[in-house]
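In response to the reviewer comment on reproducibility (Comment 2.3), we provide here a single inverse folding case reported in full, input and output, so that an independent group could reproduce the run without further information from us. The C-alpha coordinates appear first.
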Protein backbone atom coordinates (compact mmCIF):
# COMPACT_ATOMS: atom_id res chain seq x y z
CA UNK A 1 0.00 0.00 0.00
CA UNK A 2 1.34 3.39 -0.99
CA UNK A 3 0.19 6.59 0.75
CA UNK A 4 1.21 9.99 -0.68
CA UNK A 5 2.41 12.15 2.23
CA UNK A 6 4.22 15.40 2.81
CA UNK A 7 6.99 15.91 5.36
CA UNK A 8 6.90 18.94 7.68
CA UNK A 9 9.46 19.92 10.28
CA UNK A 10 8.02 19.61 13.78
CA UNK A 11 10.69 21.80 15.37
CA UNK A 12 10.73 25.59 15.61
CA UNK A 13 13.79 26.46 17.65
CA UNK A 14 13.65 29.79 19.46
CA UNK A 15 17.37 30.36 19.91
CA UNK A 16 18.67 33.70 18.74
CA UNK A 17 21.40 33.13 16.15
CA UNK A 18 24.62 34.88 17.09
CA UNK A 19 27.57 35.78 14.88
CA UNK A 20 31.14 36.93 15.33
CA UNK A 21 32.13 40.58 14.88
CA UNK A 22 35.22 42.73 15.27
CA UNK A 23 35.09 44.11 18.82
CA UNK A 24 36.49 47.50 17.80
CA UNK A 25 34.10 48.45 15.00
CA UNK A 26 31.40 45.75 14.91
CA UNK A 27 32.40 44.49 11.47
CA UNK A 28 31.27 40.94 10.65
CA UNK A 29 33.93 38.23 10.69
CA UNK A 30 33.91 36.19 7.48
CA UNK A 31 35.60 32.88 6.84
CA UNK A 32 37.35 32.03 3.61
CA UNK A 33 37.90 28.61 2.10
CA UNK A 34 41.65 28.45 1.67
CA UNK A 35 43.64 25.55 0.22
CA UNK A 36 46.34 24.58 2.72
CA UNK A 37 48.71 23.59 -0.09
CA UNK A 38 48.43 26.75 -2.20
CA UNK A 39 47.39 29.22 0.49
CA UNK A 40 44.76 30.70 -1.85
CA UNK A 41 41.00 31.03 -1.55
CA UNK A 42 39.02 28.35 -3.41
CA UNK A 43 35.66 28.97 -5.10
CA UNK A 44 32.77 26.87 -3.81
CA UNK A 45 32.30 25.30 -7.26
CA UNK A 46 35.84 23.89 -7.08
CA UNK A 47 35.36 22.20 -3.72
CA UNK A 48 34.85 18.42 -3.59
CA UNK A 49 34.13 16.05 -0.75
CA UNK A 50 36.78 13.62 0.45
CA UNK A 51 36.65 10.62 2.77
CA UNK A 52 39.31 8.57 4.51
CA UNK A 53 39.75 4.90 3.71
CA UNK A 54 40.27 2.31 6.44
CA UNK A 55 44.06 2.68 6.10
CA UNK A 56 43.92 6.49 6.36
CA UNK A 57 44.25 7.39 2.68
CA UNK A 58 42.20 10.29 1.34
CA UNK A 59 39.62 9.50 -1.35
CA UNK A 60 37.80 12.21 -3.31
CA UNK A 61 34.26 11.32 -4.41
CA UNK A 62 32.53 13.13 -7.26
CA UNK A 63 28.82 13.65 -7.80
CA UNK A 64 28.93 10.80 -10.31
CA UNK A 65 30.42 8.50 -7.69
CA UNK A 66 27.74 9.46 -5.17
CA UNK A 67 24.99 8.86 -7.75
CA UNK A 68 26.04 5.20 -7.96
CA UNK A 69 25.29 4.56 -4.28
CA UNK A 70 22.22 2.39 -3.62
CA UNK A 71 20.09 5.10 -2.04
CA UNK A 72 16.32 4.87 -2.42
CA UNK A 73 14.28 7.72 -3.81
CA UNK A 74 14.14 10.74 -1.53
CA UNK A 75 10.36 10.72 -1.94
CA UNK A 76 9.76 7.30 -0.36
CA UNK A 77 9.24 6.35 3.29
CA UNK A 78 9.92 2.62 3.09
CA UNK A 79 8.17 0.64 5.86
CA UNK A 80 10.33 -2.21 7.14
CA UNK A 81 8.18 -3.55 9.97
CA UNK A 82 5.53 -2.71 12.56
CA UNK A 83 6.64 -2.98 16.18
CA UNK A 84 5.22 -2.28 19.63
CA UNK A 85 5.86 1.33 20.62
CA UNK A 86 7.06 0.22 24.05
CA UNK A 87 9.86 -1.80 22.40
CA UNK A 88 11.54 1.33 20.97
CA UNK A 89 14.47 2.66 22.99
CA UNK A 90 13.97 6.46 23.38
CA UNK A 91 17.74 6.93 23.10
CA UNK A 92 17.57 5.95 19.43
CA UNK A 93 15.11 8.73 18.52
CA UNK A 94 16.30 11.95 16.92
CA UNK A 95 14.66 14.78 14.95
CA UNK A 96 10.83 14.84 14.72
CA UNK A 97 8.67 15.62 11.67
CA UNK A 98 4.97 15.72 10.90
CA UNK A 99 3.46 13.66 8.09
CA UNK A 100 0.40 14.97 6.30
CA UNK A 101 -1.61 13.64 3.33
CA UNK A 102 -0.21 15.01 0.09
CA UNK A 103 -3.47 14.79 -1.89
CA UNK A 104 -7.19 14.54 -1.11
CA UNK A 105 -7.13 10.96 -2.40
CA UNK A 106 -4.53 10.10 0.27
CA UNK A 107 -6.83 11.10 3.14
CA UNK A 108 -8.59 7.75 3.58
CA UNK A 109 -5.48 5.51 3.55
CA UNK A 110 -3.75 8.10 5.76
CA UNK A 111 -6.54 7.88 8.35
CA UNK A 112 -6.64 4.11 8.00
CA UNK A 113 -2.95 3.61 8.84
CA UNK A 114 -3.19 6.23 11.62
CA UNK A 115 -6.09 4.47 13.33
CA UNK A 116 -4.52 1.05 12.84
CA UNK A 117 -1.28 2.16 14.50
CA UNK A 118 -3.11 3.84 17.38
CA UNK A 119 -5.46 0.91 17.92
CA UNK A 120 -2.61 -1.60 18.11
CA UNK A 121 -0.19 0.71 20.02
CA UNK A 122 2.31 0.06 17.27
CA UNK A 123 4.79 2.10 15.25
CA UNK A 124 6.27 1.62 11.81
CA UNK A 125 10.04 1.28 11.47
CA UNK A 126 10.96 2.84 8.14
CA UNK A 127 13.85 3.99 5.98
CA UNK A 128 13.99 7.49 4.56
CA UNK A 129 16.57 9.55 2.70
CA UNK A 130 16.97 13.14 3.87
CA UNK A 131 19.42 15.26 1.86
CA UNK A 132 22.01 12.66 0.87
CA UNK A 133 21.86 10.41 3.90
CA UNK A 134 19.69 7.38 4.46
CA UNK A 135 18.22 7.12 7.94
CA UNK A 136 16.00 4.91 10.00
CA UNK A 137 12.76 6.55 11.09
CA UNK A 138 9.80 5.73 13.29
CA UNK A 139 6.26 6.56 12.15
CA UNK A 140 3.67 6.83 14.92
CA UNK A 141 0.10 8.03 15.40
CA UNK A 142 -0.22 11.09 17.59
CA UNK A 143 -3.68 12.53 17.87
CA UNK A 144 -5.04 13.29 14.40
CA UNK A 145 -1.71 13.07 12.58
CA UNK A 146 1.17 10.77 11.81
CA UNK A 147 4.61 11.72 13.07
CA UNK A 148 8.00 10.64 11.77
CA UNK A 149 11.08 10.70 13.97
CA UNK A 150 14.50 9.87 12.60
CA UNK A 151 16.47 7.23 14.47
CA UNK A 152 20.06 6.27 15.08
CA UNK A 153 21.30 3.11 13.46
CA UNK A 154 21.77 0.30 16.01
CA UNK A 155 25.57 0.46 15.79
CA UNK A 156 25.57 4.25 16.32
CA UNK A 157 24.32 3.97 19.89
CA UNK A 158 27.24 3.44 22.23
CA UNK A 159 27.08 0.85 24.99
CA UNK A 160 27.07 2.48 28.48
CA UNK A 161 29.98 0.38 29.71
CA UNK A 162 31.94 1.84 32.62
CA UNK A 163 29.37 4.55 33.35
CA UNK A 164 27.19 2.91 36.00
CA UNK A 165 28.57 3.14 39.58
CA UNK A 166 30.49 0.08 40.69
CA UNK A 167 30.48 0.83 44.42
CA UNK A 168 28.17 -1.20 46.61
CA UNK A 169 25.42 1.06 47.95
CA UNK A 170 22.69 0.21 50.44
CA UNK A 171 19.43 2.09 50.04
CA UNK A 172 17.19 2.00 53.10
CA UNK A 173 13.41 1.73 52.73
CA UNK A 174 13.07 5.09 54.50
CA UNK A 175 15.23 6.73 51.83
CA UNK A 176 13.15 5.27 49.01
CA UNK A 177 10.02 6.45 50.77
CA UNK A 178 11.45 9.96 51.07
CA UNK A 179 12.44 10.00 47.38
CA UNK A 180 8.94 8.86 46.39
CA UNK A 181 7.45 11.59 48.56
CA UNK A 182 9.67 14.15 46.84
CA UNK A 183 8.59 12.96 43.39
CA UNK A 184 4.95 13.19 44.41
CA UNK A 185 5.49 16.73 45.67
CA UNK A 186 7.20 17.90 42.48
CA UNK A 187 4.52 16.27 40.32
CA UNK A 188 1.62 18.22 41.78
CA UNK A 189 -0.02 20.57 39.24
CA UNK A 190 2.88 20.16 36.79
CA UNK A 191 2.18 21.02 33.15
CA UNK A 192 5.02 20.54 30.67
CA UNK A 193 3.42 23.14 28.42
CA UNK A 194 4.10 25.81 31.06
CA UNK A 195 7.87 25.25 31.04
CA UNK A 196 9.80 28.10 29.41
CA UNK A 197 13.39 28.71 28.34
CA UNK A 198 14.21 31.41 30.90
CA UNK A 199 17.75 31.89 29.59
CA UNK A 200 16.59 32.50 26.02
CA UNK A 201 13.88 34.90 27.15
CA UNK A 202 16.40 36.86 29.22
CA UNK A 203 18.84 36.88 26.28
CA UNK A 204 16.17 38.23 23.93
CA UNK A 205 15.24 40.93 26.45
CA UNK A 206 18.89 41.88 26.82
CA UNK A 207 19.39 42.17 23.05
CA UNK A 208 16.27 44.30 22.62
CA UNK A 209 17.16 46.52 25.58
CA UNK A 210 20.75 47.12 24.48
CA UNK A 211 19.48 47.90 20.98
CA UNK A 212 17.57 50.80 22.53
CA UNK A 213 20.54 51.93 24.61
CA UNK A 214 19.56 50.43 27.98
CA UNK A 215 22.29 49.37 30.43
CA UNK A 216 22.60 45.62 31.19
CA UNK A 217 22.02 46.28 34.91
CA UNK A 218 18.65 47.83 34.15
CA UNK A 219 17.68 44.82 32.07
CA UNK A 220 18.69 42.44 34.86
CA UNK A 221 16.61 44.41 37.37
CA UNK A 222 13.54 44.26 35.14
CA UNK A 223 13.92 40.57 34.33
CA UNK A 224 14.25 39.47 37.96
CA UNK A 225 11.16 37.51 38.86
CA UNK A 226 9.99 34.49 40.73
CA UNK A 227 12.46 31.65 40.54
CA UNK A 228 11.35 28.16 39.55
CA UNK A 229 14.41 26.55 41.15
CA UNK A 230 13.38 24.05 43.80
CA UNK A 231 15.44 23.65 46.97
CA UNK A 232 15.51 19.86 47.23
CA UNK A 233 16.60 19.85 50.84
CA UNK A 234 13.69 22.10 51.79
CA UNK A 235 11.29 19.78 50.03
CA UNK A 236 12.77 16.75 51.76
CA UNK A 237 12.58 18.49 55.12
CA UNK A 238 8.97 19.42 54.51
CA UNK A 239 8.22 15.83 53.54
CA UNK A 240 9.79 14.53 56.74
CA UNK A 241 7.88 17.05 58.86
CA UNK A 242 4.64 16.06 57.16
CA UNK A 243 5.38 12.41 57.86
CA UNK A 244 6.05 13.18 61.52
CA UNK A 245 2.73 14.99 61.77
CA UNK A 246 0.96 11.97 60.33
CA UNK A 247 2.77 9.65 62.76
CA UNK A 248 3.28 11.65 66.00
CA UNK A 249 5.49 10.22 68.72
CA UNK A 250 3.75 8.98 71.92
CA UNK A 251 3.37 11.74 74.51
CA UNK A 252 5.35 11.51 77.76
CA UNK A 253 3.47 9.96 80.68
CA UNK A 254 2.72 12.45 83.44
CA UNK A 255 0.43 10.48 85.74
CA UNK A 256 1.30 9.35 89.29
CA UNK A 257 2.03 5.83 88.25
CA UNK A 258 4.53 7.01 85.67
CA UNK A 259 6.29 9.20 88.26
CA UNK A 260 6.41 6.31 90.68
CA UNK A 261 7.88 4.03 88.07
CA UNK A 262 10.49 6.63 87.22
CA UNK A 263 11.39 7.06 90.88
CA UNK A 264 11.64 3.33 91.42
CA UNK A 265 13.91 2.96 88.41
CA UNK A 266 16.02 5.87 89.56
CA UNK A 267 16.37 4.34 93.04
CA UNK A 268 17.34 1.01 91.55
CA UNK A 269 19.89 2.71 89.37
CA UNK A 270 21.36 4.53 92.37
CA UNK A 271 21.59 1.30 94.35
CA UNK A 272 23.32 -0.38 91.46
CA UNK A 273 25.75 2.52 91.26
CA UNK A 274 26.60 2.20 94.96
CA UNK A 275 27.15 -1.51 94.61
CA UNK A 276 29.43 -0.93 91.71
CA UNK A 277 31.36 1.74 93.59
CA UNK A 278 31.74 -0.61 96.60
CA UNK A 279 33.02 -3.36 94.39
CA UNK A 280 35.54 -1.04 92.77
CA UNK A 281 37.07 0.01 96.11
CA UNK A 282 37.45 -3.57 97.41
CA UNK A 283 41.15 -4.53 97.67
CA UNK A 284 42.83 -7.81 97.36
CA UNK A 285 44.44 -9.36 100.51
CA UNK A 286 47.91 -8.09 101.21
CA UNK A 287 47.56 -4.92 99.03
CA UNK A 288 47.36 -1.49 100.59
CA UNK A 289 44.89 1.05 99.42
CA UNK A 290 45.02 4.74 99.31
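Designed residues, in position order:
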Amino acid sequence: MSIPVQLYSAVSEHRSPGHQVHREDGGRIRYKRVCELEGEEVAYADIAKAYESSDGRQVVLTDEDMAELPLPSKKVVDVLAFVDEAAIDPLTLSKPYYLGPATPAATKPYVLIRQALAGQSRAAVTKITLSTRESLALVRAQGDILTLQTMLWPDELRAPEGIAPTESVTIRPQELKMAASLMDTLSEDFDLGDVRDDYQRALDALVEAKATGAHPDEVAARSTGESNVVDLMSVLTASVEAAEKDHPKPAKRTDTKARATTKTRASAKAATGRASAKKTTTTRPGRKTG
